[in-house]
């Protein structure tokens, strides 16, 4: 099955269960001071759970573009090093707003995975919430009872609060969740653990694919939990992970979600991708991942910039540039050449990229050119700094790399960590603070990073200046 067919199978399945299919919300979050980027399918439905708005349909399903590079969920450092954490990924989800609950959610996830998508039963196991005595929370027996209809009890494991209890924030809707994991170890390896627990979260071939959250409590300001009058279901399944399982691959990067981008990278750089842990192979994975995050975020209206969400994108982009520059020995802009592959691949599901392909390509190319102008010198400078340092580089040095050569702190951290050094980050932050005060004194103007695109048919660009500043759309 192709990835497109798998996505369609998910949406079609929930359509047959009376779900209304809605489009993905933009990856960039507007008007929410608590969140920069969409990091889960439920974000766009937050007001329904909070009771601020009534859901237009009791059952909804979609595929949501998510980004996990900041805040509570930051997977950036895993990306390319492991085979299943991405910066940007698609989260498939189905929701019940005060409609069905545990019985249907569990039954349908089982039906979809084992009957529609034919994942072998003996590869699956699930976790349910073990309860919490301090909070007076019981084991989620309801979920366990539903699972027992479908799966043997030794495949139903108890999970702790960290993994199996979801909360939106310090207060508000929350509840237990049940997660579905796939064990793709070879039969050989699985035999060795027979009789012992099936869970081996550290094994790269045992991965979580789907989380079903049952929102049944409201946490009050004093910390106590109240039963909600209406109970909700909120699920999220990693699309790229699902595709990997169904296509029988050992890595998300071996699926057709990434193969087109990877072959283009290999073509351009005359590299052969072998799927190993060499720096070159990690680089190919990192690039094929990062270009998606960068392209879709720009297409959703966030330009790279020096502050806020724009700086997150700039950091990802510069991280990618340094990877190809150092490990694929490619010294010219590369990422912008990958945009057409992705825009083509996602033309049906996320047409916003195709619609703005020329613009997105231009923005990325200019960003790459700008960073490549200082990268070589910065890399030489960092070598000097490393040779002159003990096991830590000073905040002043890290700040010089940031200020003069455009090295984001996390890039400096990554480069020095490869040589077993760290950065004095609090001293770096102090330097940063000093500079902010200097520039605040110098200028009172703060530029706005947000641009709006694709809101209805009347959206047109009225112009954009340099990448460092802003673009407006009416
Ligand atoms: P993990 O434990 O693997 O980091 P998670 O528990 O943080 O995943 P959830 O918040 O439960 O993830 O999100 C729901 C689903 O989204 C996960 O079951 C997984 O399939 C997928 N997912 C989460 N983070 C990523 C990521 N960085 N890249 C790809 N898929 C992801
Ligand atoms: Mg995680
Ligand atoms: Mg998890
Ligand atoms: Mg989870």
From TrEMBL:
**Every Alanyl-transfer RNA synthetases family profile domain range:** 1-474
In the record, what terms sit under GO molecular function?
A: alanine-tRNA ligase activity; aminoacyl-tRNA deacylase activity; ATP binding; tRNA binding; zinc ion binding
Q: Looking at its record, which EC class is this enzyme?
A: ligase
What are the subcellular locations of this protein? Answer: Cytoplasm
The enzyme's E.C. designation? 6.1.1.7
Work out whether the entry's keyword set contains Signal: no
Named cofactor requirement(s) = Zn(2+)
Q: Its GO CC terms?
A: cytoplasm
| UniProt remark on cofactor binding | Binds 1 zinc ion per subunit.
What processes in GO biological process is this protein linked to?
Answer: alanyl-tRNA aminoacylation
**From which domain of life does this come?**
Bacteria
Which key words tag this protein in UniProt? Aminoacyl-tRNA synthetase, ATP-binding, Cytoplasm, Ligase, Metal-binding, Nucleotide-binding, Protein biosynthesis, RNA-binding, tRNA-binding, Zinc
> Which chemical reaction does it catalyze?
tRNA(Ala) + L-alanine + ATP = L-alanyl-tRNA(Ala) + AMP + diphosphate
Q: What does this protein do?
A: Catalyzes the attachment of alanine to tRNA(Ala) in a two-step reaction: alanine is first activated by ATP to form Ala-AMP and then transferred to the acceptor end of tRNA(Ala). Also edits incorrectly charged Ser-tRNA(Ala) and Gly-tRNA(Ala) via its editing domain.
**Domain annotation text?**
Consists of three domains; the N-terminal catalytic domain, the editing domain and the C-terminal C-Ala domain. The editing domain removes incorrectly charged amino acids, while the C-Ala domain, along with tRNA(Ala), serves as a bridge to cooperatively bring together the editing and aminoacylation centers thus stimulating deacylation of misacylated tRNAs.
Q: Which family does it belong to?
A: Belongs to the class-II aminoacyl-tRNA synthetase family.
Q: What is this protein called?
A: Alanine--tRNA ligase
Q: Which organism is it from?
A: Flavisolibacter ginsengisoli DSM 18119
């Amino acid at each position: 099955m192709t990835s497109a067919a798998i996505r369609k199978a998910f949406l079609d399945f929930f359509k047959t269960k009376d779900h209304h299919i809605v489009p993905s919300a933009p990856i960039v979050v507007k008007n929410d001071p608590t969140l920069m980027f969409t990091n889960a399918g439920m974000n766009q439905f937050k007001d329904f759970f909070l009771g601020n708005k009534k859901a237009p349909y009791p059952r909804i399903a979609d595929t949501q573009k998510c980004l996990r590079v900041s805040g509570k969920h930051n997977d950036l450092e895993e990306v390319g090093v492991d085979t299943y954490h991405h910066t940007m990924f698609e989260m498939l989800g189905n929701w019940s707003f005060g409609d069905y609950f545990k019985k249907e959610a569990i039954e349908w996830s089982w039906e979809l995975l084992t009957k529609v998508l034919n994942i072998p039963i003996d590869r699956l196991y699930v976790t349910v919430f073990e309860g919490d005595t301090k909070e007076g929370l019981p084991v989620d027996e309801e979920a366990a009872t539903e699972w027992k209809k479908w799966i043997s009890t030794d495949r139903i494991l108890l999970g702790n609060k960290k993994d199996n209890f979801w909360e939106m924030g310090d207060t508000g809707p929350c509840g237990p969740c049940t997660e579905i994991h796939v064990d793709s170890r070879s039969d050989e390896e699985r035999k060795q653990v027979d009789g012992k627990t099936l869970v081996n979260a550290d094994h790269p071939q045992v991965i979580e694919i789907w989380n079903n959250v049952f929102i049944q409590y409201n946490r009050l300001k004093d910390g106590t939990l109240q039963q909600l009058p209406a109970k909700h279901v909120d699920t999220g399944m990693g699309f790229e992970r699902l595709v990997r399982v169904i296509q029988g691959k050992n890595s998300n990067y071996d699926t057709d979600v990434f193969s087109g981008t990877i072959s283009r990278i290999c073509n351009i750089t005359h590299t052969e991708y072998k799927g190993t842990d060499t720096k070159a192979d990690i680089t190919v994975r990192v690039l094929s991942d990062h270009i998606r995050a960068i392209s879709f975020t720009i297409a959703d209206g966030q330009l790279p910039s020096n502050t806020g969400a724009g700086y997150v994108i700039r950091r990802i982009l510069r991280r990618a540039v340094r990877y190809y520059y150092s490990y694929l020995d490619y010294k010219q802009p590369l990422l912008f050449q990958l945009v057409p592959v992705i825009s083509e691949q996602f033309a049906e599901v996320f047409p916003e990229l195709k619609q703005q392909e020329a613009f997105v390509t231009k923005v990325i190319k200019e960003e790459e050119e700008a960073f490549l102008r200082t990268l070589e010198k910065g890399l030489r400078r960092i070598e000097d700094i490393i040779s002159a340092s003990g096991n830590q580089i000073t905040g002043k040095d890290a700040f010089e790399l940031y200020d003069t050569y455009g090295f984001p702190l996390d890039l400096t951290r990554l480069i020095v960590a490869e040589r077993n050094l760290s950065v004095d980050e609090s001293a770096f932050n102090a330097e940063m603070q000093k500079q902010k005060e200097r520039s605040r004194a110098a200028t009172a103007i703060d530029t706005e990073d947000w641009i709006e695109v694709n809101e209805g048919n009347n959206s047109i660009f009225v112009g954009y200046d340099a990448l460092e500043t802003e673009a407006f759309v009416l």
